[in-house]
Amino acid sequence: MKAKSLEVNTEKIWENLEIRNFEELDSTNNYVKKYLAKNKEKEILVLADRQTKGRGRSGRNFYSKLKHGLYFSLGFSVEDTDPELLSMYTIAAASSMIQAIEKECGLKIKVKWVNDLFYQGKKVAGILAEAITNQKTNKISSLVIGIGINLVGTFDDADSSTQKSAGTLYEVLPEEFEKESLIIEFLRVFHLYHQNIESKSFLPVYEKHLLGIGQEVYYLRRDKKYEGRIEGINEQGQLLVKNKKNNIEILIADEIHFSSEQFVQEIGETNENF
Ligand code: BTN
Q1: Staple 90 to which of 129, 139, 141, 241, CB 3.0 to 4.6 Å?
Q2: What is the CB < 6 Å shell around ligand 1?
Q3: Atom of ligand 1 nearest to the CA of 148
Q4: Ligand 1 centre and the CA of 243: distance in Å?
Q5: pLDDT, tens digit, for every residue of 105-141?
Q6: How much is the pTM?
Q7: Is 147 within 8 Å of 72 (Cβ atoms)?
Q8: What is the gyration radius of the CA atoms in the chain, in angstroms?
């Protein structure tokens, strides 16, 4: 598939970032992973209007054929990083995209731990951070941050779970909306976090937008169902849940599945705009 042009000037934000824009790809994350396998030190942003095999966390599909969707992946190398940092990057990316949407679109966004963005009680975006690991050292050498945003459209032919939980940022794309501005703002904020990832300065932003604090929830750990009340996150970005015995459980992103459906709310239960 031939790349089409996109007017995104990232020179001052992310120097030497290669940008490729497509009408359709299987998955922008797949594209970036293949690219980085051949171009180890390079940094790349790949966008697509549609994906035929959009992927979510834990092997799930991500519906990627909306009338207007924004699907992109950012790939870059990191210096021998510990695997634990992958969830920090998910949280940094979520915090950056929350701020970008709030600034560029003026919409109030929430985050369902760990990687789902919600607007008006529905999931409107997902983040899939993947690592390329050096097998010898077991350290991460490159990262791929994939983000899918539902802008406008319906989920008629999506799976039933997506139909119940997914929503869009808009019913009709506003004339003033510009994909480019949203991406640039995301890159600007995310690059700052990336340069100083150890400081975890995004954690307060993330926690401020965390969905469901005080809410009774259920979650699956190795297919077994547990219940508890969300208390917040810790310094590692892990979710703190108070169980029935009043003990705090620490939930680690890779081990837990939280269904989006239990966080879905009707419009009116949340504040829509600023
Ligand atoms: C999730 O909901 O679990 C995460 C969804 C991440 C979707 C994005 S869309 C761009 C990139 N390419 C993919 O195949 N997935 C990510």
Answers
A1: 129
A2: 27-29, 51, 54-57, 60, 62, 71-73, 115-116, 126-128, 146-148
A3: 9
A4: 31
A5: 999 999 999 999 999 999 999 999 999 998 888 899 9
A6: 0.94
A7: yes
A8: 18
Distance separating alpha carbons of residues 171 and 270, to the nearest angstrom: 17
